[in-house]
Amino acid sequence: MDALLPALIAALLAHAGDRPPWMASRLADRGAGLTAIVAAILLTQAISQGVAAAGALLVAPSMTPNARQFLAGVALCWAAVASGLPTRAPRAATSGRGGAFVVAMAALVATTLGDRTQFATFGLATAGMSPLLSAMGAAVGAGAVSIAAAAMGETAWRALPHGIWRIVSASLLGIAGLATLLSALRLW
Fold first, then answer.
1. Tell me: the pLDDT tens digits for 155-178?
2. What's the pTM value of the predicted model, to 2 decimals?
3. How many domains does one find in the chain?
């Protein structure tokens, strides 16, 4: 649980203001079936967070415990900075050949790989005892946000107070990141 819960909370905070949920809501409004979108979200998050965990498995053995904790702090601070910035509209295709699932998968992969949630997962998985649990927690958190956005549709999703959410998520992620950095440097 010590690896799953922090990743889940970080993913909920960072992902709610990111582009993948917006893309999921846009796909729902453009007529892609909700079942296809949900399947694409689940698969995309499993792949994205799995890549982060795999990277953590490769990097963590060569790092000291303080360096792993420092990396987690940097990842959380980066997620805080990125969460505080306004989100640009996703530009991935929302229609095309291959059916609703293929289009949704391609659009979500384009907006998900390399996002702030994946980097936060990488950092937390590197510092944690179980990268697999970190990936699972982040996939559940990010997937829940994207599924909720798809169920709401783009108009309702964009009507939410994202400006307030950016401030709250950036503050909470920033506090967690700074505390982790200070702990890694043995200053707290």
1. 999 899 989 999 999 999 999 999
2. 0.90
3. 1
